[in-house]
């Protein structure tokens, strides 16, 4: 079956511009997560959705970052007024259920964002 | 916050077993131990998870110490496709996975 998909795969933008990154989770998965990975680093948790609501936004690094999820499916991560330190690979994952501690997450291929 | 400690890198020969260690001395009683791996230029891939008992699946085995302060991921026969960064992660709060630096596994032919 189809896995988690993300678009675009690569995005180059100028400092100060806004960008939108899209995630299509696996059909039927109620939980969705955003992470980012800077070059050579581990993953940094950004935000978690259960259905359309986001009970945990603790990882968003600043108020320039926001995310929404509509229809319990597609999610969009928006970065406003991008800065060079926002350059990273942004990864999306989904899981069948949320709220538990034994849940397997399925990751998409990521969007590589480069801010020039 | 519970944290994990893993060696930065390990090497293995092809078709030999690999034991990847992870220390998590501050683990709480309800933390699950998850292992993911990340191949070059790909998103992380789930490998295995457990709570107290040892676990086996088609990819690997997970051996958990009796006091749960450490665990070991076991790849029974390493292949070149197993070369990746392996992350040991504790899941403790609403699926908020905190990834560390992981162990970079190199498999030599």
Describe the structure.
- The complex is a heterodimer of chains A (116) and B (109).
- Chain A contains no helices and eleven strands.
- Chain A is mainly beta and 116 residues long.
- In chain A, strands 2, 4, 5, 6, 9, 10 and 11 form a seven-stranded mixed sheet that branches. A four-stranded antiparallel sheet of chain A has the order 1-3-8-7, with no helix packed on it.
- Chain A is globular, with a radius of gyration of 13 Å.
- Chain A starts with a strand and ends with a strand.
- Chain B has strands spanning 9-13, 18-23, 32-38, 45-50, 55-56, 61-64, 70-75, 84-91, 103-108.
- In chain B, the strands form two sheets. A five-stranded mixed sheet of chain B has the order 1-9-8-3-4, with no helix packed on it. A four-stranded antiparallel sheet of chain B has the order 2-7-6-5, with no helix packed on it.
- In chain B, a hairpin with a 6-residue loop joins strand 3 (32-38) and strand 4 (45-50).
- Chain B is globular and about 40 Å long.
Summarize the structure.
The complex is a heterodimer of chains A (116) and B (109). With 116 residues, chain A is mostly beta strands. In chain A, 0% of the residues lie in helices and 49% in strands.
Please provide the count of β strands of chain A: 11
Taken from the alpha-carbon principal axes, the silhouette of chain B is globular
Secondary-structure element series of chain A: EEEEEEEEEEE
Q: What would you report as the Rg of chain B, rounded to the nearest angstrom?
A: 13 Å
Helix content class of chain B: under 10%
Strand order of the largest sheet of chain B: 1-9-8-3-4
Distance from first to last alpha carbon of chain A: 37 Å
Tell me the number of helical segments of chain A per DSSP (H or I, 4 or more residues long). Answer: 0
Major sheet of chain A = 7 strands, mixed
Number of strands of chain B: 9
User: How big is the Rg of chain A?
Assistant: 13 Å
Question: What's the rounded overall pLDDT mean of chain B?
Answer: 91
- What is the overall number of helices of chain B? 0
Which protein chains make the most extensive interface, counting residues with beta carbons within 8 Å of the other chain's beta carbons?
A-B, 30 and 23 residues
SSE sequence of chain B, one letter per element = EEEEEEEEE
* Content-based structural category of chain B: mainly beta
In what range is the share of β-strand residues of chain B? over 45%
Q: Indicate the proportion of strand residues of chain A.
A: over 45%
